[in-house]
Amino acid sequence: MHQEKMRFHPKQAILTLFEHSQLRPDILITNKDQKKIMIVDVTVPFENRTLAFRDAKAQKVEKYAPLAKTLRAKGYQVQTNVLIFRWDPSNKRVLWDCGIGQRYAQLIRQLMVSDAIRWLRDIYLEHITGHWQYQER
User: Fold this and answer.
1) Residue-averaged pLDDT of the chain
2) How many CB atoms lie within 10 A of CB 14?
3) Bridge-partner residues for 115, per DSSP?
4) Would 82 disulfide with which of 60, 63, 113, 120, CB 3.0-4.6 Å?
C-alpha cells in the first residue's frame, strides 16, 4: 500500500463505514479511489519480550477482524497493522506501509523508546515509594 496515494483520514469522515461498530482504530489511512483502508492500532504491552509483542499484535488483529470483514464486504481492501509502543522491529514495516519515511520513523522510534523508559521508571518509583510520580509539564 505504500506506493499508492494513501492519506491519514479524520475518523469522523469515515465513521459511516462502521456506523454499527464500537471499534475505533487509533489510525485510519484510506485511498478512496482504490477503495483501500489501512487500520493501525497502537498497543502498549507490559512485558518487553518478543512473545508478548506477538500476543499483543494477535489480540489487536483479532479485535479488528469484524470491522475488517465489514469493510471487505463493502468492497474495500483492508490491511490491519499494529504499532507496538516500545520498539519492535515490525514497527518499521508498519510505518513504511503508512508512508512514513526512514528519517521520521527513526525519530518516532527514539520518542517511543524514551517515553516507554520514562513511564516505566515512574511506575517503578511509584511502586517502591508509594507516591504518584507523574506530573503535568
Assistant:
1) 78
2) 14
3) none
4) 60
pTM of the model: 0.67
DSSP 16: G
DSSP, collapsed to helix, strand or coil, labels residue 5 as: coil
Distance of alpha carbon 6 from alpha carbon 68, whole angstroms: 17
- What is the side-by-side strand order in the sheet with 36-43? 7-8, 27-31, 36-43, 77-84
Grid coordinates of 26: 487509533
- Per DSSP (E only), the strands in the chain are 7-8, 27-31, 36-43, 77-84
| Distances from the Cα of 73 to the Cα of 30, 35, 60, 68, 69, angstroms | 16, 12, 20, 9, 6
125 Cβ neighbours under 8 A, 6+ residues apart: 131, 133
Distance CA 19, CA 41 (A): 18
For the stretch 61-97, pLDDT in tens is 999 999 899 889 989 999 999 988 777 788 888 888 8
**Helix, strand, coil tally for the chain in percent (to 5):** 50, 15, 35
